[in-house]
Amino acid sequence: MLFAGRLVSFLGTAVAPVALAFAVIDDLDGSPAELGLVLAATWLPQIVFLLVGGVVADRLPRHLVLVASNVLSGGAQLVAAVVLLTGTATLWHLVLTQLVRGIAQSFFFPASTGLVPQTVTDDKLQQANVLLRMTTNGSFVIGAAAGGILVAAVGSGWALAFDAATYFASGAILVFMRVGGRVRARTGFAHELREGWREFRSREWLWAVVAAATFGNMIAQGCWMVLGPVVAQRELGGARAWGLVLAVQSIGFLAGGVAAFRLRPRRYLLAAQVAIVFSAVNLIALALGVRVAVLAAAAFVTGFCIELFGAYWDTALQQHVPREALSRVSSYDALGSIVAIPVGLSIVGPDSAGIGVSATLWAGAILFTMIQAAALLSRDVRTLARTDQPVAVDASPEPETATAS
């Protein structure tokens, strides 16, 4: 049921960017800057609300938090669909509805991470995480294509109505889940945030990898998402070539998931971080100005490495963080991973104007690789091993040393 609920939800979510893009460009005759504002409105609230979502997901039944998140997201998309279909939409209608959807997603992801160990046994966590991540990647490939067809056939408003329907359908599936575990006693919001932070910072392997991800995502997202289309437009033939590259990268995600489903290294965090060290091959290919086929192959490798990392990372969190604090810890992880991305997106353009696109890409690839390799200096990152025994909450008031085994 968790698999089906997420699959249905993400199919609609994959349609949304296409529908929103053409709603702004075609229906509202908007500019690229206005489109960026609408798309950014979805994830900006997460910087504020992710920690709140983590506390709520550790307090309440997590499957019901997912249901509420889906209903709120569905309501936001339904409003966006209605104003587009009735011809009353303005830019700010879309911005506000996407802000609401971003708030809802702040509750969805911490709850979803914490729910997996309540759904399957510990020895099946890795396979479960791979299957769930494959729903995301597979639905992106299918949903993006479906979004283009829907928008072309019936318009952006109906495509967003489809997205709303998938959110409601997902909520209807998840509401019938029956999972173990009791609702935690409430001890105060600030206290629970501090408790989650204590669990986060007491594990060196956790904060070391998240710190690397903070700067790594800033660099990788900025270079790939901003300069990739620029290179494609100037040297590779435009949007069609870039779409092909992104599609092949998505196939790499799926292939990485298949590999992670079969490969169960004992020191899985070491394997995950080594994989991510090599994931800057796409930036190197962009910097070299290679042909489309070579760039697509590099993107495949990057997707493969990122997905291998993601599957092992999710499993490490679920096996080595206490169940009672898992959603809060995962919210700190998510916040650290996305908080610097807007910086990367905003500085890469001016940097490339000053030193050139190729030089910026080379600098990004080198810095990214060095930062990810630096995380391997942590002994905890290198030695953390899989376990089938749930971790208990650390009762000490302020632990100062890493507790990961």
Describe the 3D structure:
- The protein is mainly alpha-helical and 405 residues long.
- It folds into two domains: 2-186, Growth Hormone, Chain: A; 195-383, MFS general substrate transporter like domains (Growth Hormone, Chain: A).
- 80% of the residues lie in helices and 0% in strands.
- It has 16 helices and no strands.
- The protein is globular, with a radius of gyration of 21 Å.
- Residues 394-405 have low confidence and may be disordered.
Task: Give me the CATH architecture of the largest domain, please.
Answer: Up-down Bundle
Q: Note the total helix count.
A: 16
What is the CATH superfamily of the largest domain?
MFS general substrate transporter like domains
Number of strands: 0
CATH structural fold name of the largest domain: Growth Hormone, Chain: A
The rounded Rg comes to 21 Å
What's the overall geometry? globular
Largest sheet descriptor: none
What is the strand content?
Answer: under 5%
Order of helices and strands: HHHHHHHHHHHHHHHH
Distance between the termini: 33 Å
Structural class: mainly alpha
**Helicity level, as a percent range?**
over 70%
Uncertain regions: pLDDT < 50 for 5+ in a row?
394-405
CATH secondary-structure class of the largest domain = Mainly Alpha
Mean of all residue-level pLDDT scores: 82
Q: What is the number of independent domains?
A: 2
